[in-house]
Amino acid sequence: YEHKMLEEKFDKAYSNATKALINQNISRAIELLDLYKNIKSKQVQIRDLFTAFKNYSRFQGIFYEKKYALAYAMSSKFQALKQTAQYKKMEQIFKVAFSNAQRQVLQGNMSGARALLSEYSTVVSKKPIIKMILTQNREFLEFLKAVQKKDFEKINELINTNELFKEIPTYTSLIHEIENKLINIESNIQCGKAAVAQEELSTLEDIVHLKDKIEGLYTDCLNVERLYEAYDNDDFKFCYKLLDSHKSLNNTELGILLE
User: Fold this and answer.
1) 192 contacts 252 by C-beta, under 8 angstroms
2) What is the pTM of this model?
3) Separation of first and last alpha carbons in the chain
4) Residue 71: which pLDDT band, with cuts at 50, 70 and 90?
5) What is residue 156's predicted lDDT score, i.e. its pLDDT?
6) In angstroms, rounded to a whole number, what is the distance separating the alpha carbons of residues 19 and 110?
7) CA-based, 20 to 30 A from 167: which of 63, 96, 157, 191?
């Protein structure tokens, strides 16, 4: 347990030190990691962090010159640079290029797709996914159609045959959309808007791998409705009975009010 706590504290300090280095506050980064500098298992990680940010100005220059292949090579060598705004922006630019290339492939314009992805042809981390889109195999086209239809049974079947499908921007966008929807549902439940949450949940019912999660959220909705009904009827005894038997209700606005 103590080891886990130490790891969590280090991870937090490392993350904050990275932010400090992004803001060019070297002294603050040193201060944050000073406690861990003599721990042998952390020394290489700390050293690599500071080495990476010695190259940050150069990385920024390459990014602004739009030499993305070189910038990807640098971030591959200095992994901490992947936490910077420039790297994240670069990934967004690649996703747009890939999505446009994907559209060209579906229209049968392979030369257009190649042109859009040509500047990434030497980027080692992008080569497999670029090769996959340009070879235009049957499974890839099936996957695109499954994502478009939100056919998660087919999506999961194809991912089991090729993990690379998880990196396709249209798929990652769909996953982010679902994650944001789940966050919104949980927020509505906490605010007592059970009917709104249930309506949003109904759009996710066909996602097989989320079945248990969705069933749990439906149960939370029903319990929230029961809690509000008991509260409206001044039945505080039943309110506290519900709070005792369903701990998730303690995190709702009404649950906090009744504490």
Assistant:
1) yes
2) 0.73
3) 30
4) very high
5) 87
6) 41
7) 63
